[in-house]
Design brief:
Layout (H helix, E strand, L loop, with lengths): L1 E5 L4 H16 L3 E6 L14 E4 L10 H25 L3 E4 L6 H9 L4 E5 L6 H6 L4 E4 L13 E3 L6 H6 L10 E6 L1 H17 L3 H4 L2 E6 L2 H14 L2 E5 L5 H7 L2 E4 L3 H10 L3 E3 L9 H12 L2 E3 L7 H12 L2 H11 L7 H13 L5
Parallel strand pairs: 1-2, 1-4, 2-3, 4-5, 5-6, 6-7, 8-9, 8-11, 9-10, 11-12, 12-13
Helix pairs in contact: 1-14, 2-3, 6-8, 6-12
Length: 359
């Protein structure tokens, strides 16, 4: 079959799409990806026959001008998507969230192409909520808030990349060095650069001496973060980006991170304890719902950014890194959300939907 995948141009949307594309391609199907210009640096190795970029826009504000600009951009995207679907004649369309999925999934609906929307978060996003009444819904979490009533829903989990599955290894509680991994994505690293180094500096000397830190920091913050760790004599590797992040998660005894859907999925599949700080300001509060789901299982501790100070973070870090038994228990409980075969399950669903079957 020919599958049209549509995803917003960020890693959180593209990584699950990439995982599904890999499985569909391995099964002999043809994959076409539709996304927006932001993805141009992320899709070099995406396993698709072709990558198509269509115009789209997010509603940046409620001003009449912003609404008009969004309408024009998405209208252009719809026309481009309609032409694309007429040319490709896909058997199934799968959307992975974000406003760039609205034009291609809307065009697919008008062309009567069977469709799936995959909701990665524990609360449905606005774009997916718009599309959901006219598609089958696949969810990452067993309980997703905000789903419209009477939808056809299948819980599949969130597809993770092959590098994540390859990194899965048993958790070994620390008996010497404690490896701390800190990352927050392009939108989230600044706060960790501000609060994590002073929090570690305030730890008891015998606790601080055991730490080995790996921390993501924005390029403009990396030098000061590195200098802070050097000044306190803590072994640290600081960089703006880590290509081998799944392997670094697997090597960590504790992770401090945002709680995007892909991050939560990777923590669960690999099985590592975490202190999660949801990205504030999101209209849907999706990261807060994701973190709460993992915290409810006992696999993470959630702290709201507004409540964090270096002093409070020192207390949290001290309580966690000095309790190996608790870290081991959290690592095991984090696996409660894991669906390592989520990409296979979503591929199965796509094949059934394309064939006209209803789960």
């Amino acid at each position: 079959m020919r599958a049209l995948l549509a995803a917003g141009g960020t890693g959180g949307h593209l990584f699950p799409a990439e995982a599904l594309a890999a499985v569909l391609t391995a099964r002999g199907h043809t994959v076409e990806l539709v996304t927006d210009d932001r993805a141009k640096t992320l899709v070099d190795t995406f396993p698709a026959a072709r990558v198509h970029f269509v115009p789209s826009a997010t509603l940046a504000s409620k001003s009449p001008l912003a609404v008009a600009r969004m309408a024009v951009a998405n209208g252009r995207g719809y026309l481009a998507s309609a032409r694309l679907i007429r040319a490709l004649r896909p058997d199934v369309a799968v959307g992975f969230g974000g406003y760039p999925t609205l034009p291609p999934l809307s065009a697919a609906r008008m062309a009567k192409v069977p469709s799936i929307v995959h909701e990665a978060n524990a609360v449905i996003g606005r774009a997916n909520k718009t599309l959901a009444p006219h598609a089958h819904v696949a969810t990452s979490f067993p309980d997703v808030k905000g789903l419209p009533a009477a939808l056809s829903v299948t819980h599949v989990g969130i597809p993770v990349r092959a590098a994540v599955l390859a990194a899965v290894a048993p958790f070994a509680a620390p008996d010497g060095t404690v490896r701390l991994l800190v990352f927050g994505g392009s939108q989230g690293a600044r706060v960790f650069s501000d609060v994590v180094p002073p929090a570690i500096a305030a730890l008891a000397p015998e606790v601080r001496a055991r730490l080995a830190v790996t921390q993501q920091a924005r390029p403009e913050d990396a030098a000061r973060v590195t200098a802070a760790y050097e000044a306190m004599g803590v072994s640290a590797e600081v960089a703006p980006f880590f290509k081998d992040l799944p392997a670094r998660i697997a090597a960590a005894h504790l992770v401090v991170a945002r709680s995007g859907a892909s991050t939560v999925a990777e923590l669960s599949v690999i099985g590592r304890p975490a202190l999660l700080v949801p990205l504030p300001g999101a209209l849907d509060q999706d990261q807060a719902h994701n973190a709460a789901a993992l915290e409810a299982l006992g696999g993470a501790v959630m702290r709201l950014q507004a409540d964090i100070t270096p002093e409070s973070l020192t207390a949290d870090l001290s309580a966690l890194v000095t309790d190996p038994a608790r870290l081991a228990e959290m690592a095991e409980k984090a696996r409660g959300l894991a669906k390592p075969d989520a990409a296979e399950r979503l591929a199965d669903l796509a094949e059934r939907i394309a064939a006209g079957d209803r789960p």
